UniProtKB/TrEMBL annotation:
Domain Methyltransferase type positions: 2-49
Protein's name according to its UniProt entry: Methyltransferase type 11 domain-containing protein
Any one GO MF annotation of this record: S-adenosylmethionine-dependent methyltransferase activity
InterPro entries to which the protein is assigned, alphabetical: Methyltransf_11, SAM-dependent_MTases_sf
Amino acid sequence: MEGEAGQLPVEDTSLDKAVSVQVYEYLNDIAAAVAEAHRCLRTGGLLVVGDIHFDSLVWYSDDPARMDRMTKAWDKHFVGRDVPALLPPVLRDVGFTVESVTPITICDNELRPDGLANMMITLMKRFAESNKLVSDQEAKAWADEQRSLAAKGRFFFSLTHFVISGRKS
Ligand SMILES: C[S@@+](CC[C@H](N)C(=O)[O-])C[C@H]1O[C@@H](n2cnc3c(N)ncnc32)[C@H](O)[C@@H]1O
């Protein structure tokens, strides 16, 4: 079924578990989505939300000012860069007991073809270019630098995804 996070096509108290992975960072109203999950869960049901806190990004560049421009451009593709920090009080306000907040850090010192950093290089470059947030030359130079650093064994990337679980009391 497809539906809005703030208006799920699901009956009241019909779910044992609800899981959201990197969706809440795109929502204007996180509290409405949490309240909607609460409505759909049975008493004792579990809501599990995974989202990245983008302040946790550590990404090496010989040109930190350009890296800053690229990450600020990427910030414009979502609503919230800090969802994990906002979520625990929202869960409590809606009627969940926060059971755990678990950080999962993805830390690479090699540019893995199937890794998160490689995907982000492609997506960030495309987003910055197509929305004219930096020049095409700058976006290309930024992406090229990461591949060049990796070829020299100087690549470093770290980002933390948080898994937050709340139980409906
Ligand atoms: C980064 S993707 C994550 C997809 C998937 N959960 C995963 O981990 O691969 C973000 C997803 O959020 C969904 N999304 C964005 N705004 C939404 C909304 N208001 N209600 C429901 N889903 C939404 C998009 O359709 C997209 O599939």
